[in-house]
Amino acid sequence: MKEKEPLLLPGERLDDLLTHELKIIQSPEVFSFSLDAVLLARFAGVPPRGRLLDLCTGNGVIPLLLSTRTEASIDGVEIQPRLADMARRSIQLNGLNHKINIIENDLREWSVEGELYDAVTVNPPYLPVQSGDHKDNHHQAMARHELGCKLEDVIAACSRAVRRGGRISMVHRPSRLVDIIVLMRRYRIEPKRIRFVHPRQDAEANMILIEGTREGRPEVRLLPPLLVYGEDGDYTSELLAVFYGKAAELPNFKRQNGRDHDLSKPAHGEENKR
């Protein structure tokens, strides 16, 4: 039975995560999750059990979504007290205190207690401090701009936290791909899977999903692009399945004859085999 629903603070609302009857506390004044968080939670490789970590966890949306895919315990690290409090109340609301724990700390200073994590996810601030306007709303500026941590701080924290062979999954902007790969290798994380997200088929990518392995062997796979909108202007079927909770994870592609093949679909010529 779920615990008593916590009260919302002024300016907050309760939103539906559209899967497993999960709810989340949000506030447009502070932080509201977007598509990038949902895609990361469905893209990341996670073990069925063990320990997971989400850095820059915000209001806890990624740990909540990951809880539908694994029995592992999940820690989230968030530097902003108000966001950490919102995350804790959402976890309590969903009756997941036994599974998800929020740590209020600065990832640059925080260190792992106990065993290292099996997998780490992170949706970090995308923009360098000098770009854009980051003076109006402190909470939103912290989420968007590298005010509290830089990309190198994030990747260094991931490397410190994950065990050898563990996975690190990140969503970011394609313009930072070279920086991400260089920094991953500097901190002994080998990129393994990359998937670009495009608004439409004829538009360049505006998001990138990347996953690496701590001390893994060099080999990277470029997965098929993920399209958000189809030619009709509506969400694509893959996006709808993920965003509205019908698919717990993005397709797992495996090479076949030099091509990537979606394991969730039969190979060509095998549709009628039983």
Any chance you could write out the topology, listing elements then pairs?
Blueprint lengths: L12 E4 L6 E4 L8 H9 L7 E5 L5 H6 L6 E6 L2 H13 L6 E5 L12 E6 L15 H7 L6 H11 E11 L4 H10 L2 E10 L8 E8 L6 E2 L3 E2 L9 H7 L9 E4 L2 E4 L12
Parallel strand pairs: 3-4, 3-6, 4-5, 6-7, 8-10, 8-11
Antiparallel strand pairs: 1-2, 7-9, 8-9, 12-13
Structural description of this entry:
The chain is of the alpha/beta class. It is built from 7 helices and 13 strands. The strands form 3 sheets. Strands 3, 4, 5, 6, 7, 8, 9, 10 and 11 form a 9-stranded mixed beta sheet that branches. A hairpin with an 8-residue loop joins β8 (189-198) and β9. The termini are far apart.
Short description:
By secondary structure, the protein is an alpha/beta fold. The chain contains 7 helices and 13 strands. It has helices at residues 35-43, 61-66, 81-93, 138-144, 151-161, 177-186, 237-243, and strands at residues 13-16, 23-26, 51-55, 73-78, 100-104, 117-122, 162-172, 189-198, 207-214, 221-222, 226-227, 253-256, 259-262.
Quick tags:
nine-stranded mixed beta sheet; two-stranded antiparallel sheet; disordered C terminus; globular; 274 residues; 7 helices
Quaternary state of the chains = single chain
Structural class: alpha/beta
Hey, roughly how much beta strand do the residues contain?
25-35%
The helix-strand sequence is EEHEHEHEEHHEHEEEEHEE
Rg, Cα atoms, Å:
19 Å
Largest sheet: 9 strands, mixed
Percentage of helical residues? 10-25%
SS field, number of helical segments: 7
The 3D shape can be described as: globular
- The total strand number stands at 13
Calculate the terminal CA-CA distance, rounded to whole Å: 42 Å
User: Which regions contain 5 or more consecutive residues with pLDDT less than 50?
Assistant: 260-274
